[in-house]
């Protein structure tokens, strides 16, 4: 059943149609991926759905579209640039999600004080106080008041927010850390419709995999803008594509969409070609006989042709960037040698004992959790930052092209035209021709770089890399601001590249298509895996399995002890669960006594029973935490057993 229905939305921008006739519905448990080229209007469409901006009147009908939402529908939205209270700590900001529940908790405390100290007034007599206390206590328990902190910790751990940051002020966090906190807050709110705009942009691979699992199991609806093909394949069950100023819906994930779209276009092209042939014949008949003996028939066909609702060409060919990486000269065989490199910052070690040899033609992808220093490593290699110890050496005849994810190498005060002319000493005409190949035409080239979007800056950075013709490409998150189609062009351009590639990326599809080796950095050092990302996953699992096997060389007695420990822990869980059930029954009886004491106006007994009920709730929560810890211990023990 649809709880949100959108009909005939139209939106214009600077006198041009952004999109029109946009119609769709969102049903319960729909998981929708909204895709389209940068500038197609994806974020604008989300803002209209949210009611943050209004759609425009369609100039053809002079009418606006309509949006119908179910009553009391709760929508949660994560924009690309979230705004949250910078003065809050991380934990307090997430606690704000449960503001109503925590208000109940504080009111319970207030009511208990009123009862304990006989602070009654004309509006708060004993009976009304007791009634309110019972209602609020029941609501607090029903809303999971006792498990709020547990939920917050689960989300923060899953998204890779370090525990030492939970009490940090949000204002001191980096952009990536702030985005993860904002995402945590949205996920905790559990809205009926979860709307996410590029949720994976600041997540590492571990956090992306966790978020995929979370969203896959999310039992409500979601709509997300993403250019991450793997993410779309693993999460969504519908694709909405904004293309050629309209929206088309496809069932299934991204791979299903690609197959369906190809089939649709194939069939639509045949229909379009037939219609065009029919129109051509009618126009030929009108031209030949308009002034002859068949003029009446010709005028009749002309009227039919003018009234005919003609089909638009189904093949949409948007302008694409012209990206081709070439090299002027080949480098020596050993392009880069890194030996025992380490980096510490403010007393914290980012990475330690990094060693890597890159040879001509190598394609290496660097992966690892956020905070392990992947970007810093690239800056050291580019002599933008200094290492704490160790050394690296760039080979002879190596010319580096460096793509910085923050685009710090661009002059934000310069225009696109000036950035090209002054960097490469080329004419206006040459600069304009090159910029045109990257979709900057006409007066676009006069735009100041600092005013451009992330995607536009990314195109300029790629354009400059291409012009330099380096034989060693170093990328730091090159796909972050690119749409799916631009990512495909970048991948295609690198497939034919003859030089060496070193790239930090969390885009698994990009890693699969571009790299031939994976270098994983973690707290303990680094490991090199041969193959693309999928092969890395298989090798990593095999390596973990082999390491576990090596640790499993136990004697029969040791195996027996491990099995005995598992059995003992499983019995502990059973005992704890029995104790929880017993406490639940005891609490139910206490609550009956509590209600009776309220009716009898027995204040002393009421306070005593309330204290006992609170103690029971605390014990139940402690036992639940104990069960969780024991289950984790059982899991670790089983991993050691054959």
DSSP, total strands = 18
CATH fold title of the largest domain: Rossmann fold
- What is the makeup of the main sheet? 6 strands, mixed
Radius of gyration: 32 Å
Tell me the name of the CATH class of the largest domain. Answer: Alpha Beta
* Strand percentage: 15-25%
Instruction: Summarize the amount of helix as a percent range.
Output: 40-55%
Number of structural domains: 5
**Structure class:** alpha/beta
* Name of the CATH superfamily of the largest domain: P-loop containing nucleotide triphosphate hydrolases
Q: What is the architecture of the largest domain at the second tier of CATH?
A: 3-Layer(aba) Sandwich
Q: End-to-end span in angstroms?
A: 49 Å
Poorly predicted runs of 5 or more residues: none
- Count of helical segments? 19
Shape: globular
Tell me the strand order in the biggest sheet. Answer: 5-6-7-3-8-9
> Overall pLDDT, averaged?
86
Walk me through the structure.
The protein is an alpha/beta fold and 642 residues long. It folds into five domains: 1-74 and 191-252, P-loop containing nucleotide triphosphate hydrolases (Rossmann fold, 3-Layer(aba) Sandwich); 83-169, no CATH class; 259-307; 334-413 and 448-538, Rossmann fold; 556-639. The chain contains 19 helices and 18 strands. The chain has helices spanning 42-50, 90-95, 99-117, 126-142, 148-158, 175-189, 205-216, 229-235, 254-289, 295-307, 374-381, 416-424, 428-436, 454-468, 484-495, 508-514, 533-551, 556-599, 603-639, and strands at residues 2-13, 16-27, 31-35, 66-69, 75-78, 193-197, 221-225, 238-243, 246-251, 334-345, 348-359, 363-367, 389-394, 400-403, 472-476, 500-504, 517-522, 525-530. The strands form four sheets. It has a six-stranded mixed beta sheet with strand order 5-6-7-3-8-9, with helices on both faces. The chain has a six-stranded mixed beta sheet with strand order 14-15-16-12-17-18, sandwiched between helices. A three-stranded antiparallel beta sheet has the order 2-1-4, with no helix packed on it. It is globular and about 105 Å long. The model has no long low-confidence stretch (mean pLDDT 86).
């Amino acid at each position: 059943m649809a709880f949100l229905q959108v009909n005939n939305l139209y939106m214009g921008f600077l006198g041009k149609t952004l999109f029109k006739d946009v119609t769709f519905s969102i049903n319960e448990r729909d998981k929708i991926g909204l895709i389209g080229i940068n500038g197609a209007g994806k974020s604008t469409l989300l803002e209209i759905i949210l009611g943050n901006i209004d759609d425009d009147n369609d100039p053809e009908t002079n009418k606006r579209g309509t949006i119908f939402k179910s009553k009391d529908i709760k929508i949660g939205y994560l924009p690309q640039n979230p705004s949250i209270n910078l003065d809050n700590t991380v934990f307090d900001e997430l606690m704000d999600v449960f503001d109503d529940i925590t208000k109940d908790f504080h009111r319970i405390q207030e009511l208990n004080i009123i009862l304990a100290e006989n602070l009654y007034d004309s509006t708060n007599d004993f009976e009304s106080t007791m009634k309110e206390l019972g209602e609020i206590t029941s609501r607090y328990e029903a809303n999971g008041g006792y498990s709020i902190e547990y939920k917050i910790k689960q989300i923060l751990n899953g998204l890779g927010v370090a525990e030492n940051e939970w009490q940090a002020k949000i204002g001191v966090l980096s952009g990536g850390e702030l985005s993860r906190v904002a995402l945590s807050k949205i996920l905790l709110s559990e809205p009926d419709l979860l709307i996410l705009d590029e949720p994976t942009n600041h997540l590492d691979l571990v956090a992306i995999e966790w978020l995929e699992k979370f969203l896959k199991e999310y039992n409500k609806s979601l709509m997300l803008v993403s250019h991450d093909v793997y993410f779309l394949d693993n999460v969504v069950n519908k694709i909405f594509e904004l293309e050629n100023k309209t929206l088309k819906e496809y069932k299934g994930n991204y791979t299903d969409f690609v197959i369906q779209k190809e089939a649709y276009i194939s069939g639509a092209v045949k229909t379009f070609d037939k219609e065009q042939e029919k129109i051509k014949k009618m126009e030929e008949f009108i031209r030949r006989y308009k002034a002859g003996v068949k003029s009446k028939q010709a005028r009749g066909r002309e009227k039919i042709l003018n009234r005919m609702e003609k089909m638009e060409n189904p093949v949409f060919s948007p302008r694409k960037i012209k990206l081709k990486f070439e090299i002027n000269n080949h480098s020596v065989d050993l392009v880069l040698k890194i030996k025992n490199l380490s980096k510490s910052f403010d007393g914290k070690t980012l990475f330690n004992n990094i060693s890597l040899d890159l040879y001509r033609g190598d394609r290496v992808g660097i992966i690892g959790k956020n905070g392990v220093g992947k970007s810093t490593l690239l800056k050291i290699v580019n002599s933008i930052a200094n290492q704490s110890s160790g050394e690296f050496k760039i080979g002879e005849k190596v010319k580096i092209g460096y793509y910085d994810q923050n685009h710090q190498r661009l002059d934000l005060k310069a225009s696109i035209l000036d950035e090209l002319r002054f960097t490469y000493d080329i004419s206006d005409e040459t600069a304009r021709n090159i910029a045109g190949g990257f979709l900057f035409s006409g007066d676009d080239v006069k735009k100041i770089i600092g005013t451009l979007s992330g995607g536009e800056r990314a195109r300029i950075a790629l354009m400059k890399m291409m012009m330099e013709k380096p034989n060693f490409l170093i990328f730091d998150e090159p796909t972050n601001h690119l749409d799916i189609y631009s990512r495909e062009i970048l991948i295609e351009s690198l497939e034919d590249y003859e030089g060496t590639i070193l790239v930090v990326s969390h885009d698994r599809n990009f890693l699969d298509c571009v790299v031939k080796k994976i270098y994983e950095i973690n707290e303990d050092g680094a490991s090199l895996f041969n193959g693309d990302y999928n092969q890395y996953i298989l090798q990593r699992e095999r390596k973990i399995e082999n390491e576990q096997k090596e640790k499993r060389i136990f004697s029969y007695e040791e195996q027996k002890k491990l099995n005995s420990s598992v059995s003992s822990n499983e019995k502990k869980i059973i005992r704890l669960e029995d104790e929880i059930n017993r406490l639940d029954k005891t609490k139910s009886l206490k609550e009956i006594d509590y209600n009776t004491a309220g009716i009898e106006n027995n204040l002393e007994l009421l306070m005593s029973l309330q204290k006992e009920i609170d103690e029971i709730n605390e014990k139940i929560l402690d036992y639940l935490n104990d069960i969780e810890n024991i289950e984790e211990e059982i899991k670790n023990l089983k991993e050691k057993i054959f």
